[in-house]
Amino acid sequence: MIVVMKPDATAAETAAVISKAKRMGASSHPIYGSDHTVVALVGDMTQVERSVFDAMAGVLKTVRIQEPYKLAGRTSHPHNTVIDVNGIKIGGNDIVVMAGPCSVESRDQILEVAHMVKEAGATILRGGAFKPRTSPYSFQGLGEKGLQYLAEAREQTGLPIITEVMTVETVQMVSEYADILQIGARNMQNYGLLQAVGKVQRPVMLKRGISGEIKELLMCAEYILSNGNYNVMLCERGIRTYETATRNTFDLNAIPVLHRASHLPVVADPSHGTGDWELIPAMSKAAVAAGADALILEVHQSPDNALSDGDQSLKPERFAELMADLRRIAAAVDRNIATLPTDRAEAVNGLMKETV
Q1: How is domain 2-63 classified at the architecture level of CATH?
Q2: Which of 136, 265, 274, 310: disulfide with 306, CB 3.0–4.6 Å?
Q3: pLDDT tens, residue by residue, 224-264
Q4: Number of other CB atoms surrounding residue 202 within 10 Å
């Protein structure tokens, strides 16, 4: 249920609604809009009566929410959520491109590719320090050392970093380094992990599981939101079907479907969606045309020698060509490809000159 406050409702009247809901056994999530405040009530609603709130001062109306995803749905939050990551807005008119290697393999490797993707126009650096792999004998990542290399790459380039967190135990450590926490497809329904990232104030990118329905993805986002972290973005990264021509089936339908159902930003991952570097440019452009708010792409300076996902990694020069194409596609749908804020870029350039 949502309680819609009147445009002139006072902070005290909103606080009274929250207090009343708490006494009835429901938890409150206030959403402050430009026109009015909405208080979403979730939890055990058996003892919550709409009439009680309808009679309270400052309340315009109450509305029952039919969808099970109360906080992720548009009923309680009709306007798009825009997430600010160090000055880079995800969910607005600008389309953000996150790029970098699947795995952080060494200090030199991540620093080199970070500068390359920044030069091509990426505004967020991706890289895995902890890697969930199908085989226990495959490269598992460098762990905290990889996080330290990512942090150094951010210092040199000004690019915020996104990296995966795999366990509840490492949430705090990864949060100390990362600007965005990634929940991978294998962990979409790891409810303990979802609750843990819901308790930290870091934006979270939640990937759709390989067999996850869109409704299930939204319910998993609800776990994060209901724990107090409202900076959540949803990632379509391909699902498993009967088709074997590609690694996964990249579900372009999911982008507009998620936008219709939810206010949360939608990220597209054509790298995992196809598993084939030759297909990534076409699907990246299609994702932008379909309304994606961001892309996350794998870029490696030597894909043939990559320790993971070389087949789906673009070489830096191909990534630069794709970025030029994406700018034209974005313009065709009245959007832009995001750029690094000028003040951050200038600060980093100054730092680099002093270092030299």
Answers
A1: 2-Layer Sandwich (3.30)
A2: 310
A3: 999 999 999 999 999 999 999 999 999 999 999 999 999 99
A4: 17
